[in-house]
Amino acid sequence: MSKKEHKQEKKKSEKEQVSKAEKPGKPEKLSRKEYDKALEQLHVELVKLQQWVVHTGARVAVLFEGRDGAGKGGTIKAITERVSPRVFRVVALPAPTEREKSQMYMQRYIKHFPAAGEIMIFDRSWYNRAGVERVMGFCSDEQAENFLKGVPLVERSMVDNGIILLKYWLEVSPEEQQNRLEERVDDGRKIWKLSPMDLKSYNRWDDYTRARDEMFKATDTPWAPWFVANSEDKKRVRLNLISHLLKQIPYEELPQEKVKLGKRKIGKYKSIDYPFKIIAEKF
Question: Which end of the chain is less enclosed by CB atoms within 10 A, N or C?
Fold first, then answer.
């Protein structure tokens, strides 16, 4: 390469670097170490929230909605993995039974509303009617429209009754969704996540976009707003969403006495020689 060509290449490279700086793309992915450190701090705050909820008798309902592969399950797992399942209770309802189909639509969800000292986390919620049921033809247009008209009133009643209601939509691009669904096909640990409904929904991106937009327009209210989280990066969305959730609830750290382990008396009882069925140590 001649000196002239070398200078031209160098100049081109510098221009590209400036262009990237002026128009930054996706942020660099967090390292596992950075993620674990940040998540550990948030877990400490979630424990404080848990203690406050139990102490005050607060009631919290958190809804997670989004397309298939948006990261709802992983985010919920990140929230709940270090807290009590008796306080942070996850609701992931199956398809309705024939009996439930004959009930008022909201009826099977109402019984899962939080009681005192509970945080109910809905992995998909009553908004199924505005999304998958509407797009896949499990309800009529009239039923979907009646739902969109009525649900703000139900949520207003929840909030007026003292329930802290948080609604999250995880937004993912079609490219990233495709990557994640393809991972499920190839990973024996994730194949169970790829349901027949996911496959049928795969080619209806625009239909789901239209349904989402109409849902936001009808149900994004001052008393129960929608919060949208960019979920292109799984680690970042978990940290961002947990941080946001904690800021929405006026919890306080409760005074707590330092725990001290007492002395144990060991050796007074001699264990019997029982033929225990010991598990083989293969690892």
Answer: C
Q: Is there a domain that residue 256 lies in?
A: no
SS3 state of residue 91: strand
> How many separate domains does the chain show?
1
How, if at all, do strands 118-123 and 226-230 pair? unpaired
Range of the domain at 180: 29-248
Residue 8 lies in a domain: no
Digit-by-digit pLDDT tens for the chain (283 residues) are 555 555 555 555 554 443 343 344 567 888 999 999 999 999 999 999 999 999 999 999 999 999 999 999 999 999 999 999 999 999 999 999 999 999 999 999 999 999 999 999 999 999 999 999 999 999 999 999 999 999 999 999 999 999 999 999 999 999 999 999 998 888 889 888 888 877 888 899 999 999 999 999 999 999 999 999 999 999 999 999 999 999 999 999 999 888 888 888 888 898 999 999 999 999 9
pTM comes to: 0.85
Kindly report the CATH number assigned to the domain that includes residue 62: 3.40.50.300
Q: Where are the alpha helices (DSSP H) in the chain?
A: 3-22, 32-56, 72-80, 98-101, 107-110, 132-135, 141-160, 174-186, 196-201, 205-219, 234-248
Q: Looking at the domain assignment, is residue 3 inside a domain? A: no
What is the number of residues in the chain? 283
8 A C-beta contact, residue 134 and residue 202: no
